[in-house]
Structure formats: structure tokens, C-alpha cells
Request: fold
Amino acid sequence: MNIKTSKILSIVAAVVIFLAFFMPWTKSMFGFSLSAWDMVERLFTMLSRADSLPEDIRAYLPFLLIALPICSATIVINNLQTLNDNKDTTNGAKVITIIVVVLVIALLIYAQAENPFADFSSIFDILGPGFYITLVGAGYYLVDLLTEKTKTLQTYKASPQTEIFCTNCGKKHIESAAGQFCDECGSKL
Reply:
């Protein structure tokens, strides 16, 4: 896949992730479902009303979700501006998106393990389409980064060194020795 196609697909994935941020991340339970934006907003409201801030770092992890639309906007803007360039400058934003999604999954697995009713329900049963769409977009970023890296490794070759020969004795030298003298006979190369 060429770099322009990769950029166009990255733009599509970024727009999808951006839209999924505002889609339901939880299924409707009793007429109640939350998007990632709702989760961050409720957490912010809860923390602003609290007398003391929680000491557990897990209470602040939903704030990482804010990185998803920011990274998506960065990817769209950078790729639109450099669509015809041969370099992708959005790898950092893609990596951040992947890290956020991995942390969300790790938090969900931890919450499932700590759930006293784990035998009766699974936390993954209540996840909505916004989460899964974001997961697919982050999966595309991972594949894109890995294929770009392997393509770079395959096309990388050390610059070939041309050989030159001494006109007097015929000893082989590398081109960087041009203008030097032959080790064997002392003639100028």
C-alpha cells in the first residue's frame, strides 16, 4: 500500500474514532447509556464536587479518553495538509490512540476481575458500539504502523560502496579512498 492510500485510510479511521467518542460506549441499561464524552463529563463533575480527590489512580484513567478525539483531529489535519508528501508525521498520535485503547481494555479486565458478580455477568457484555468501533480504528492504526515499519525495514539498504582499483598495481579500494594513495604501491588513486 502506498503512503497516500495509507494516509487516506488513516483519515477515515480518525474520523470514525472521533465520531465513536460521542457514540454509546455502554449498552442501554434501564434507558441509560454513556458515550466516552459522557463518562469524562460525569467524572469531571464528580471530582469537582468531591471534598477530597481520590487517591486511587484508576479514578483518573477515564480522563485519558480525551486523547482520542484530540489525536483523531491531529491525524486528520496533518494528513490532509501533507497528503501528497511521502512521509507520515502522525505516528505519534496513532501510538497514543493505541495506548489509550490498551489502557481502557486493561482497566476493563481489571474491573471484571474485581467484580464480585463476575460469574453472573461480564463487563464486556455491557460495552456498546462506540467502544468496539474505537477498538477497530486503533487496530487499523496498529496494522498501519507495523506495515509501515516492515516496509521501511525492507526498503532500507546501506549505500553501496563502489570499488576503485589502483591503476599501477590493481589493488581494490573503496570509493571513499579516491584522492588517496594506494596502500600497496603508493600510487595516487
Observations:
- The CA atoms of residues 7 and 32 lie 37 Å apart.
